[in-house]
Backbone:
């Protein structure tokens, strides 16, 4: 599929330049020569409402919706934090866990408050990322990856975003926010999912 110049370009269904930068770094690490761009005119397209109960449905729905506005391959992701002891919360509501417009600090604050008194295996958690790639309404790939960890008692580290400061990763004895960007991309749910996507599209 990567045989032509057109097929080697991927459009991210987002207006978030920060997310594009992260995916570009992941593509670079993968060694695959893909050109990544934000979907042209994204801001002028009515927003896709992510209201499905699963990460896969949200990612696929978003990619299918925005692919109708492009001739190229459009990809979209949905990811979040899952804490089994909280019944799977924050889950697909990870970005809206503390209400619309809440800051990362407020979301982390609510999570730590909900987990007060939990110890040992009750603090187990995992990040999930599902990425879907679509061309003109036809699904090309849907991949999923996860990474296991624990919820720390308090935030640690200044890197990353979202719940990274409280996501403790035992193999490195640090939170995701304490890992260098290259380290995180090797182990993160998004890094592993994106590498799988590029393998499938190859």
Residues:
């Amino acid at each position: 599929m990567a045989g032509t110049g057109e097929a080697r370009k991927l459009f991210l269904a987002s207006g978030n330049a920060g997310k594009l930068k992260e995916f570009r770094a992941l593509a670079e690490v993968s060694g695959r020569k893909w050109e990544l761009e934000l979907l042209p005119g994204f801001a002028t397209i009515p927003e896709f409402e992510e209201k499905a109960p699963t990460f896969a449905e949200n990612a696929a729905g978003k990619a299918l919706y925005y692919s109708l506005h492009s001739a190229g391959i459009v990809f979209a992701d949905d990811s979040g934090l899952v804490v089994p002891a909280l019944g799977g919360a924050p889950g697909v509501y990870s970005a809206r866990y503390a209400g619309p417009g809440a800051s990362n600090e407020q979301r982390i604050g609510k999570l730590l408050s909900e987990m007060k008194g939990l110890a040992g295996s009750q603090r187990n958690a995992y990040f999930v990322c599902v990425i879907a790639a679509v061309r003109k309404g036809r699904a090309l790939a849907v991949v999923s990856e996860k990474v296991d960890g624990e919820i720390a008692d308090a935030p640690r580290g200044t890197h990353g975003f979202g719940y990274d400061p409280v996501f403790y990763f035992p193999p490195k004895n640090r939170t995701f926010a304490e890992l260098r960007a290259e380290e995180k991309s090797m182990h993160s749910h998004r890094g592993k999912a994106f590498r799988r996507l590029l393998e499938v599209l190859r």
